[in-house]
Design brief:
- There is one protein chain.
- With 364 residues, the protein is of the alpha+beta class.
- The protein is built from eight helices and 20 strands.
- A hairpin with a 2-residue loop joins β9 and β10.
- The chain is elongated and about 75 Å long.
- Bound molecules: adenosine-5'-triphosphate.
- Keywords: ATP-binding, Nucleotide-binding, Transport.
- GO terms for molecular function: ABC-type transporter activity; ATP binding; ATP hydrolysis activity.
- InterPro entries: AAA+_ATPase, ABC_SmlMolc_Importer, ABC_transporter-like_ATP-bd, ABC_transporter-like_CS, Mo/tungstate-bd_C_term_dom, NA-bd_OB-fold, P-loop_NTPase, Transp-assoc_OB_typ2.
Length: 364
């Protein structure tokens, strides 16, 4: 199997009739990386994955494996392995035979086959389950079997399409750790599809945030989380509090903004080229867990009244109606339970109060 040094998708476009599912998609990865395609339903994640796998033809563009075009190479000749959301296991074959089936087709001699099946089952911690049938395994075990069945073929690239979406919350967390372990043990170049931002954050070297068949942003999990370049990415990463404001100018390296009731706050732009003039309408996007009720800090404060309180584990999340801000409500976190009707102050770190032009934030 050809080892991956580099894998590139260049200008890949895929149309279905009048729908462009993937538009001018560019992605470069190097051997051993874990790349995640992240975005809401219908944004083109599976289309991108299927184009890579060779299950879909491209309408335009090319795919280069070690700088050699492979878009016309048949799926089974690419040497890639895919794990599907529904696992696609053979119910009438034992666990061992499920794993060994691909090796049988490739006429791998029995002794070597048995050795590779054993080590694949050990890798996914299913060594004791070889004689069972898929129907006798839990959801998480079936998932691991699907992975074993794919990695036993030693693919150059592992493609995973929402592999954890059929599992309950606890199992998802466990399997996430398992996936991370398997990836680091095999150092296997992986492309993973999910709409779950926390999965993308915890697993990936590179996250590709997609929207309507386009790439919105590519970066490390830290970059995507801390420096979302567009309101769409920010909102998708949990910056769901919105506060309209007007630019007054710059102060100490931050933007100085004025909210509806005249309160002045400092905020940041994730785009270094931003050159707003005083009077520019902006919207601040902030994560609830960075909107702090009962703040210690003296700066960047807003006043409001608590309307609803929810316990979210580790903290209370309050819905706060800001005073004199035209009905704007924010979700804020605090360690202590607030009561409905309480007046509270909230504070936001200027580095975590992200500003975008108001017109950019209309369609998120
Ligand atoms: P999900 O998370 O729901 O699986 P996705 O991000 O993987 O979504 P895709 O399945 O790639 O999205 O679909 C992207 C767009 O292309 C959607 O608008 C979808 O309806 C359309 N599409 C995908 N496959 C086909 C097809 N075979 N025929 C027609 N349209 C398709």
């Amino acid at each position: 199997m050809e080892k991956i040094n580099t894998l590139k998708m260049k200008g890949v476009t895929r149309r279905f009739g009048n729908t462009t599912a993937l538009h001018d998609f560019h992605l470069e990865m190097s051997g051993g990386q874990f790349v995640t395609l992240l975005g809401p339903s219908g944004c083109g994640k599976s289309t991108a994955l299927n184009c890579l796998a060779g299950l879909l033809d491209l309408s335009d563009g090319e795919i280069l494996l070690n700088d050699r075009p492979i878009q016309d190479v048949a799926a089974e000749k690419r040497g890639f392995g895919m794990v599907f959301q529904n696992y696609a296991l053979f119910p009438h074959l034992s666990v061992e035979r499920n794993v060994g089936y691909g090796l049988e087709l490739r006429r791998v001699p029995k002794a070597e086959r048995e050795k590779r099946v054993r080590s694949a089952l050990e890798l996914v911690h299913l060594a004791e389950f070889g004689k069972r049938y898929p129907g006798q395994l839990s959801g998480g075990q079936q998932q691991r079997l699907a992975i074993a069945r794919t990695v036993v073929l030693e693919p150059a690239l592992l493609l995973l399409d929402e592999p954890l979406s059929n599992l309950d919350a606890n199992l998802r967390n466990e399997m996430r750790i398992e996936l991370k372990r398997i990836h680091s043990e095999l150092n296997l170049t992986t492309v993973y599809v999910t709409h779950d931002q926390s999965e993308a954050m915890s697993l990936s070297d590179i996250v590709v945030v997609m929207r309507n068949g386009h790439i919105e942003q590519i970066g490390s999990p830290q970059e995507i989380y801390n420096q979302p370049k567009s309101p769409f990415v920010a909102h998708f990463m949990g910056y769901i509090n919105r506060l309209p404001a007007t630019i007054l100018g710059k102060e100490n390296g931050y933007w100085l903004i004025e909210t509806a009731n005249g309160t002045q706050l400092l905020g940041s732009s994730t785009n270094e080229e931003t050159n707003w003039q005083p009077g520019q309408k902006v919207v601040a996007l902030i994560r609830p867990d960075e909107t702090i009720a009962e703040p210690q800090a003296e700066t960047n404060r807003l006043i409001g009244h608590v309307q609803l309180v929810e316990y979210v584990g580790r903290a209370y999340e309050s819905l706060v109606l800001l005073t004199g801000q035209g009905g704007t409500q924010l979700l804020a976190h605090s360690g202590r339970r607030q009561n409905s009707g309480d007046q509270i102050e909230i504070s936001i770190d200027p580095d975590r109060l992200l500003l975008f032009s108001a017109d950019e934030t209309e369609n998120i």
